[in-house]
Structure formats: C-alpha cells, structure tokens
Amino acid sequence: MRRYLPVLAVIAAAFILAIAVLKITFPAQENVTPPIFDNNATTDLSHEEDSIPYSEPEAINDSLIAHAGGAVYGYKLTNSLEALDNSYANGFRIFELDFERTADDKYVLLHDWDSMAERMFFRREVLSYDEFHSSQTFAELTLLDLDMLLDWLQAHENCYIVTDAKCGNELFLPYLYAHAGELAERFIPQAYSFEEYQSAIALGFEKVILTLYKSGYSEDEIFAFAKENHPYAITIPKESLTETLITTLTELGIRTYAHTVNELYVYEDWNSLGLYGIYTDYFQPAKWPY
Fold it and tell me: What pTM, to 2 d.p., does this model score?
C-alpha cells in the first residue's frame, strides 16, 4: 500500500489543480433573472440621457393659401372654426382670414357686416360681441373671435394667418401685435398701401404682404416699391394680372400671389409666367399636383 501512496498523492494534487483552473475559467455567477427577449424589439445602442427626440419637420406648401379659411361643406367665405379644421386636415398651413369689429369694438372673424353678415346671422347689421356668439349661425358654424383664433394657433404649430382687416389696419394691426404676444410672428398682415406696409414693418411684423385690390398704383410704382422694400409677397387680383407685372416681380425675387383662384387653368397659365401661388377656396395642398 505504501508503494502506491506517492501515486495517490500525485493524483490528488492533479485533481485539486483541475478544480482551481475550473473556478478561474468559469467564475460563480450571481443569481440574476434572465432577460425576456422581444423578437419585435429593436436594439437601442444610445444612452437614454444622451438621446434627442427627432421628428420629421413638416413641409409647408406656401403656394396655396386658404381664402377666408377655405371652403367647408361646399360653402366659402365663412372664416369659421369648421373651415379652419377642414383646411388644416387637407394640408393647408397658411390661412387668409377676414377681421371685423363688433358694435362694442371687439375683433371677430367675419368677411363683412353686409351681405356675409346677412348670410351668417340672417340679418344685416353690426352685432355686439355677445350677439355675435349667441346668435344662430348659418349651417350651425362656429364663428371665431381673435382670442379663439389665438387658441387655435397655439394648438396648431406651423400655421400662419394672412390678415385681411376689413375693419382697417390702422387700429387693428397695433392691437394684434400687442395682444398676440409670441404668436404675432405667425401673422402675415396684408397692407393696402405703401404707407401701411411701412407701418406694419415698423410695428415689428417680419413678413408683410402688399395687396393691390384696394390700390390704384401703376406698374412702375409697384416695381419701384418692390426694388426698394423687397416685401415678403405682393398679391394681385386675378383680373389685374399682367405678364409684365408677374415676370418683372419674379425677376426681382418677389413672391406673387393671385386671388381668388378656383380654376386650374388660371393658375397654370399664370404659373407658367412665374406666378408663385394663389389664394383659393377649393384646391387642397394634400392633392395639389404642383
């Protein structure tokens, strides 16, 4: 038996050495619950604190402007909440809206207190603010005041309002700029004269459109003004469009709009000469082929 002791000692030593090697190679693991894998999940390789949410910026088609908020239920010129929502759903992000003043000097959205007031309220008279909101309306449309429009703008990013102040710009634009606060940058006033344009710029509006439907300026006067002031855009009644007017303003780098255009051939004919865009009741950016 003694002669086998050295052999047993060698075997025991080898066994102890093997155990030690195994412990080094395969260390004991903590009792960790195995992960549950989702075959549909994607691997996130970023640290949460370093990741920045990204959303695709929304393209704005500024060649189409919704005239009076755009048509709704087939009706135009309503300036209503339903018109805004419908036009927004169909891709509009720029809306031309009409502003009037109530009998007690509150600003509301209405095309005029004459024929359109008779259509919307079934009576042709200037209403008070309370009457404006409490009266029965055509097609049960929701008519807006300025504060309601500001709330709508707050809820709809990337939307802009082109103003048509039937009540006049002299009092309206200073009030709008002060009252709208940070939303003032989302308004693009229409000025009806060179002087009104300068006043709107002086108030702090960054984008101002010179609209020509109330003016009697010659083309030379318009070109001189455009060269000196380079307005955001010039809007022209479709009946007053001329080839010289469109091509010259385009060469000067000025956007030109025509209003109100609901016939495709009218847009196509003038667009071929450089017309930038149109105010429209019915065309929709979501289905606009240009």
Answer: 0.80
